[in-house]
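Chapter summary example.
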Amino acid sequence: MSDLLLEDEHFDPNAAPAVDWELWRQLFQYVTPYKRELVFLVLTAVITGVLEPLYALITKWLLDDIVANGADASIVMWGVFYIVMVLVLAGSVGFFLYFTNKLRVYASYDLRIDAFKNLQNQSFAYFDKRPVGWLVARLTSDCERLTNILCWALLDIIWGVTMVLATCFALAWLSWKITLVMLLVMPFIFWVSAKFQRSILGSAREVRATNSRITGSFNEGIMGMETSKVFVQERTNAHRFSSQTNKMFKASVRNLTLAAIYVPIIVTASSISYGLALAYGGSEMLAGSIAVTTLITFMMLVTHFFEPFELVGNWFAELQMAQASAERVLSIIQAEPEITDSTSVKEAIRVHGDSASERAVAFDGGASDIGEIELINLGFGYEADRPVLRDINLKVRRGQTIAFVGPTGGGKTTLVNVVCRFYEPTRGGVYFDGVDYRNRSQHWLHSNLGIVLEQAHVFSGTVRDNIRYGKLEATDQEVEQAARLAEAHEFISELEDGYDTEVGEGGNRLSAGEKQLLSFARAILADPQILVLDEATSSVDTETEQRIQHGIERMLAGRISFIIAHRLTTIRNADRIVFIDDGRIVEAGSHDELLKSRGRYFELYAQQSMDHSFRAAWKHESLSA
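The structure predicted for these 625 residues follows.
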């Protein structure tokens, strides 16, 4: 896998020297919808923050009572008061743990749902630039980390602020002079925090970016395991992965070192403050300005006062490190698709509805059938300065089949992808019944589209579920009929549980040919107006191909069909065969017309026929021997 980072994966240690509070405000919106849980979380955190300093005050009041009244002190009353406070505090802590975890689960769910939904809306170009592993890392580890911070940090901050205010009020009530001495270190704490912001955030970005590359390597290494073994590349893969892991190690050590330095500084500063308070308080006690019980209580409260600062210091370091994760997750949620419906189309959808038939009425003046597709001066390039398609002019009418042939890399699949609007032309246009398809909705086009790819994708689940994916409301009878037309019923019937057989992840319990047959059945069931077959029979043997040829012909009848094929015997009956090379249409015509012209198609057909004759002769000689 390329080590190049995507544009949105670049990290800059000098970028965003402070916490981006706008970023966290946007993420916090995933918590605010759950007002009941949020209110209880805030309430229990405040109760806990107020109650904790009371322990020290109860101790002071008890000691003062004993000093003043001796054996007549109300020890039982103070004991009951203490037990009640402990029970209230325990209940408060239990409730805030419950509501915090509940809120975290809700936020995590919504965050992942929004990210996944927006991924579904992205154009093909988005996934061309982003390896699967990078996206998986964002939807798993990054989301989990952010929701932990959103909820637990929120809880600790509310608890901490409440406790600091309550403790500070108690300290000032006991002795405002000692309180001022104790607070002398606070400017230093704020200064240190500001200095560490930039470094911690920069190293955190580097850690998360490197982690994405490692996740991508994991994904590619597992998916390409067979290829790696065939070409004996295990050592090369291990070396590449080790190099990435070393980068991750160094970045993580630097990040953790910065955090490890920052937190002890805060702890040391609090200890210095404690020492100053003890020294000044001791002198005040010796001078008779305060009682010994007051000094003891004050020092107990000072310890409580700095607990929240230490905890918030830890969260601050975590917040810095997690900001890179926040940027990454929000980049998915807020990513705008390169291909979107125009403003007029969106308005028409709003007025007329969202179903395919209603969209057809909205954009076609009542006509739902696609009668003609025309490509006019079509040009396209994945990059602006590197065109892949040039000056493509083509017209196909309903009921016609167009076959694209030519050398590998000539632009056949790219052309079909542009026609299907997986990519949009960079020059010229694609017109459906005279209307530029950019003036129609994507849903309308894609709901009338059926594709059978060279590498058929099968989802985990049953055989029936995979076929029904083409038409979710289809009955079992319709599913079986589609399978029969695709010549898939025979092999399905031989499976252990027939149509209810689990195919495994990615269809790993099926052969490549069986997955291809399921893909055919799925396309037949969908009954699309536009059908695309991209090397659709490449994974089945010649005998099976001949059996399903009749089904294919029935599929093509009455539709606009595009076939990409290297095996020319499968396209002899196409209405028009278009030879594409270097992004241009070199020649076009029927099979017989192109043979008579003795051009590029003739050369390719003759070569394949010679290869076929040679293989047939070799097979015959082998059988004779």
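To summarize the output: Residues 1-17, 356-367, 614-625 have pLDDT under 50 and may be disordered.
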